[in-house]
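User: Can you model how heme C sits in this protein?
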Amino acid sequence: MYTPNYSFRMSNNPQIDADKVIAAMSCEGCHINGQRWPLNDSMDFAQVQFKILVDQSMPLGMHLNPLDPGNNTGRVVEKLTPDERFALTNCLEAEFELEREKEKEWLTQEQCQN
Ligand code: HEC
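Assistant: Here's the modeled complex, given as structure tokens:
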């Protein structure tokens, strides 16, 4: 019987390729004005968690089902391990928090800075 898994935790001995996780954090490559809505404070972080951990559709192309375009292997292709997905979600959440704290500073600064 199918039992949905709503609970996510790191494995006991996580093997995480930090470079892969960092590269996967560049969601803004697609989520920019005009193409897709930016991922920012006005969205519920649960939506990000859902897309990465539950349906695994984000980052786009990192989980390919057998019938997805570009997958000719006949099986599911995972480019991120479950631990890497978990790490990615945690890193993005930390980044969200960091940006939330800086919002006032950004809105009140006199000149644009990088
Ligand atoms: C290569 C382009 C691409 C990248 C990179 C990408 N996305 Fe997306 N994203 C899309 C597309 C296309 C959709 C609409 C299709 C869908 O919902 O599955 C989408 C939809 C979403 C949605 C649903 C809301 C919406 O804007 O439609 C969320 C949330 C999301 N992505 C989160 C992320 C996160 C978090 C990352 C980084 C870890 C990420 N995405 C990286 C292309 C991308």
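A couple of observations from the model: Residues 51 and 58 are 5 Å apart (CA to CA). The mean pLDDT is 87.
User: Helpful, thanks.
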